[in-house]
Amino acid sequence: MAQHAAPAWAVWMRTLTTWLSEDIGGGPRPWKLAWIVNFQKGGTFLFLGALLAYYRNQTTAAWIYLAMHGTYGLVWLLKDLAFPDANWQKRVTLLGGVNAFALVLGPYWSFGWLLISRNTTPNYPLPAHIWYCLCISLCTFGSVLMIAADAQKYFTLRHKRGLITDGLHRYIRHPNYLGEMMIYGSFALMSWHWFPPLVLAWVWLLLFAVNMVTKEASMSRHPEWADYKQRTWWLIPFIL
C-alpha cells in the first residue's frame, strides 16, 4: 500500500518546531532533549514546594496541586528509566534546548505559580471538594493511560515492528497523547486561570495535533492501515 503524504501545513509546522527545539543556532549539541524534559518534570515537585514555602500558602487547592503535578513529574522519571522514548534521545543545539524549555516546558510551571501565588482557593464553578475529585480523577486516569500506552508501544516494538492495533490502541490511535492532554487539562482546571488554556491550545494544536497527523501519514505505509483507521477513533472514542 502506498504511503500517504502528510498535509503541507503539518509538514511545515513540524519542520518549524523541530528547528526551534533542536537545530536553531547551529553549533555543538551539548545535551539530549531527554535531559531537558527530565529536568523540568523531575524538578516540578521541588519548584512547587519552594513556591508553597515562599508564598506561605496553606490552602488545600495548592497542596493538592503539588501532589498532582509534582508526583506526575516523578512518575515521568520512573517511566524514562524503565522504557525511555527514543524520540527524546536526540541531541540538540544550545539554543534548541533553551527553546524547548522556554516555549513548552517552562510555561507548564506557570500553572502552579498562578494558583499558589494567589494564596486563595479559586472560585471554581463547582463546590471545591467536587472540583478536587474531578481534577484528581482526570490526572490519575490520564497518567495511567499515558504510561500504559507508552509501555505497550515500547515493549511491542522491541519484539515486533509494525502497526500496533491491539491493547490500548484497539479503539483509539493516539492513547498516549490523550493521556497527556487529560493530565495537563487537570492542572489547568485546578489552576482555574485564563492563561493555562492558552498554553494548552498552543501545545495541543501546534505540537500534538501536528505530531499525530504526521504520525498517521507514516503509519499509512502499513497494509492494514486502512482497515485499522476505519474501525478506530483518532483521539476520543465516539467523539473524535
Structure, explained:
The chain has eight helices and two strands, in the order H-E-H-H-E-H-H-H-H-H. The chain is mainly alpha-helical and 240 residues long. The protein has one domain. The chain has a two-stranded antiparallel sheet. The mean pLDDT is 94.
- The overall pLDDT, averaged over residues, is 94
- The share of residues in helices is 55-70%
- Strand order, largest beta sheet: 1-2
Could you give the distance between the termini?
A: 25 Å
| Low-confidence parts | none
Query: What structural category arises from helix and sheet content?
Result: mainly alpha
Short description:
With 240 residues, this protein is mainly alpha-helical.
List keywords for this structure.
single chain; 240 residues; mainly alpha; two-stranded antiparallel sheet; 8 helices; 70% helix; globular
Write the layout of secondary structure elements.
Layout: H1 8-23, E1 31-32, H2 33-55, H3 60-82, E2 91-92, H4 94-118, H5 128-159, H6 175-191, H7 195-219, H8 225-230
